[in-house]
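thread: overnight batch results

M.L. [08:02]
morning all. the overnight job finished for the chain we discussed friday. pasting input first so we're all looking at the same thing
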Amino acid sequence: MTADGPLIFLAAGEPSGDQLGGALMRGLSALTGGAARFAGIGGEAMQSAGLDSVFPMDELSLMGAAELIPHLPHLIGRIKLTLDLIRDLRPAALVTIDAPAFCLRVGRRVGGLGFPRIHYVAPQVWAWRPGRARELRRAFDRLLALLPFEPPFFSAHGIDCRFVGHPVIESGAGHGDGSAFRRRHAIAAEAPVLCVLPGSRHGEVGRLLPIFAETAARLAARVPGLVAVLPTMPAVAERVAASAAGWPLPAIVLRDTAEKFDAFAAADGALAASGTVALELALSRTPSVIAYRLNPVSAFAARRLIRVSHVALPNIIAGRTVMPELLQQDCRPDRLVPALESLLRDPAVRQAQREAAAAVAVELGEGGEAPSRRAAAAVLEAIEAWRGGAGAPRVASA
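M.L. [08:03]
and the structure it wrote out:
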């Protein structure tokens, strides 16, 4: 590294990418003894880690959205500004984070300038658009993957891809205090507890909450003393609370995320919408059933495009059913109730799922170096490869 440290240009276009970027910047600072310098686009997390964002990250939130067309001239201007700045700065590396609609446009246009183009969060093209790997190869020199099976897929397409671990490892999901949660909410130690997670977006909550409510009501008639806990997000908390107020069992609504992992640790089982929460539940060792229902048009498109046999990431990672999945026409109370009742009543069923979840957690990187630090090391390694005259990183699967 030079005496004043490498200048790394980072670009994130959405809140999840901003969180990843902030953690990555802290990892880069730690590994360079505070010498790394930063420029680019980010939100609050990246700014708190030392980034002076070129323009507000929120301006990129429409990339790929239906509302894009009216804002297209402004977004084109922002892309041009970003490209001009990268060309002027000639950073040691470009790191784009998630938001592929924006990042692909930037990555394609700055090739050949003498620095590696690194994309953090390998797009899940293996699930639905494998042909898109060609676009990634033209836009980026290295991908940083969150999932352990991704590097072999991308290597087969001629793309250097390094597994760095999933950020859920650093979320605290595996460190909840279930006993403290039960004490705070006056839940008896022997009472069965079910976490109910109908999603964080209005559309999925609208589709799933009535199904989950009926499922909880039927379970309450079959599992004496059942208590429901509904960890939710501020955007949908009122809607969830209004539903839960009419449930025929005690229902505790958590209106922010502060107690979520304690609730997971306190639970005997969970009913959850498909998404990142499945990984959080796996790390928490909370036996779970995953359920989801798309609208008919989206479901038709998904059936034609999706190329994986499971939708829940713990199941994809394990290559088998760790958490039962009840999707589309199977996402209904008469199917959900028996699956959940077996979790709540049978300790052997819960233990088997916990053991399988523990293996998934190890695959995700639990017990190893923090994913943000591994990502930082992969960025610095790519910089050294270019400075050593090797050019683009060689294809590797580790």
